[in-house]
Amino acid sequence: MLTGTLYALAAGLMWGLAFIVPVLLPDYPAPLLAFGRYLAFGLLALPIGWLDRRSLGQLQRADWIEALKLSALGNIAYYVCLAAAIQYAGAPLPTMIIGTLPVVIAIAANQRNAVRDGQLPWLKLAPSLGLIVAGIGFVNRDEFARIHGATPADLGRYAAGVLLAMAATALWTWYPLRNADWLRHHPDRRPMTWSTAQGLATLPLALIGYGCTWLFMHVTVADTPMPFGQTPALFLSLMFALGLLASWAGTLCWNEASQRLPTRVAGQLIVFETMAALAYAFVLRGKAPPWGTVIGVLCLAIGVVLAVRIKPAVVAEAA
């Protein structure tokens, strides 16, 4: 449990970096950021895959199809929605909407994988979920206070950001459940191999997507010069940093956690990503977070600690 929790913490710290890149590159369209990140992920997976080719060769056709699904929806589509949400609404508000993932995943997994992982009694789980919900509420209260009195155009952008963040939340509710299912059903497979397989599956999708985005921007006479935009050095360095840290290494750490922890517990540990992203966002703003945000983060942390300490009850398989 401790090792799995530490792996989840490491994954959260690296995944939190993905929330600040759209802030650092505000003039880049969200699809370009998403395809650029996962193109870098795929390219980095090539030499790693060559070194791990023996283990990758043991994967079946169905495994590669699953990796492709996870890459398309849980990687590329998710980050397109997230990057656009952050550019429309700023980093903290989408971050806290994504922060509902611990609650959503815990509720979904508690029924879905009860026989395999056991079931957390709802009465024991309720205080943890309540604290997480309260923490999300405290932070969102401070963020909504920031947009009080905004123009209709600004409110429209915030509304679009909220909807995109909700779509990203739905995609990332599906991803860890399916990813954990594969890992728990294949305990003989190394998490690093599965992380590399997802990177290799992402590469052709990202390459096609980047090319289509380039063509679309050329046809629409967009202001962004291609192939690497207005600040190519910054763009490339951030894409490869995300590809290495947030994608490959983050996925590796999350896979390690997913093999060690019940899905509902691992799902709640995604809160580490939310806490890291908030910390990075306020560092970029150059000021300390308001007290409501601090209280909200404390509620999130306490809620997760309580959830991890709950022992699941054994559920018998139906005859």
Question: How would you sum up this structure in a few lines?
Answer:
The chain is mainly α and 319 residues long. It has helices spanning 2-15, 21-24, 30-51, 53-56, 61-89, 92-98, 101-112, 114-117, 122-146, 152-185, 191-219, 232-260, 263-268, 271-285, 291-308.
Keywords:
319 residues; mainly alpha; 15 helices; 79% helix
Structural description of this entry:
The protein is mainly alpha-helical and 319 residues long. It has one domain (2-308). Helices cover 79% and strands 0% of the residues.
Strand count, sense and barrel status of the largest sheet are: none
* Contiguous helical run count: 15
Helix content: over 70%
* Strand residues, percent: under 5%
What best-fitting shape do the alpha-carbon axes yield?
globular
Secondary structure category: mainly alpha
- What is the number of beta strands? 0
What is the overall pLDDT average? Answer: 82
Low-confidence stretches: none
Domain module tally? 1
Span between termini: 31 Å
Order of helices and strands: HHHHHHHHHHHHHHH
How large, in whole angstroms, is the Cα Rg? 20 Å
